[in-house]
Amino acid sequence: GNSVTQMEGPVTLSEEAFLTINCTYTATGYPSLFWYVQYPGEGLQLLLKATKADDKGSNKGFEATYRKETTSFHLEKGSVQVSDSAVYFCALILYNQGGKLIFGQGTELSVKP
Amino acid sequence: DVKVTQSSRYLVKRTGEKVFLECVQDMDHENMFWYRQDPGLGLRLIYFSYDVKMKEKGDIPEGYSVSREKKERFSLILESASTNQTSMYLCASSLGTGVLNEQFFGPGTRLTVL
Q1: Bridge-based pairing state of the strands A62-65 and A75-77
Q2: Cα distance from B85 to chain A (closest Cα, Å)?
Q3: Residue of A23, A34, A44, A52 to mutate, interface with B, max B Cβ within 10 Å
């Protein structure tokens, strides 16, 4: 079946530290990949996306590269801020799934000053 | 900006009650979705709809039903609420079904069933 696995949280970092949140996927077809972010008390927002192998999605200093050979889409940021504290979800979508997103379990990030 | 609104941020109900969760989007989107969010499980799709009066089961439809009488409104119904339906419920909408059609999410309704 199709699934997404993320590294477990919570992840706690100091401000300006380097961030990596691992995400791997299993898919029967050729998925597009997404990272969503959920700030405290809010719904999910699309952070970045990639639709084919070797694509790099980027936004707000975050980056993720679609690696078909390792079925991965790890999220990275060079220098985190307190305002990046949130829950991050990796997700995939397949052409033949009619727009249905399949989410990982979410990784909570806490950034301390 | 796309706006997806949900009728309540917090809701407390008793076991056996019929519960209605309402979702409204203001951008004429074709597709609407209901998810539940639980710690350690991420988001799981309950039901979705591609058009008015159309509905499709998601991954966990048991115990839920939906209604879409108008394009902008998608309701989730718990016919007889149970304690295992205590969760955060998120509504989303998208313009189309292609992979590039971003889903926009509402703020969520945290439901507690006592």
Answers
A1: antiparallel
A2: 18
A3: A44
> Token pair of A30, please?
């050729």
Q: What is the pLDDT of residues A50-75, one digit of tens each?
A: 989 999 999 999 999 999 999 999 99
Compute the residue count for chain A: 113
Q: What residues does B38 pair with on adjacent strands?
A: B42
pLDDT tens, residue by residue, A77-88: 999 999 999 999
With CA atoms as reference, the chain A residue closest to B50 would be A98
Sign (positive/negative) of CA torsion B33, B31, B49, B19? positive
Please count the helices (runs of H) and the strands (runs of E) in chain A: 0, 12
Chain A residue with Cα closest to B10: A41
By three-state DSSP, how is residue A49 classified?
strand
Q: What is the mean pLDDT of chain B?
A: 92
Q: b or e along A89-109 (b: 16 or more beta carbons within 10 Å of the residue's beta carbon)?
A: bbbbbbeebebbbbbbbbbbb
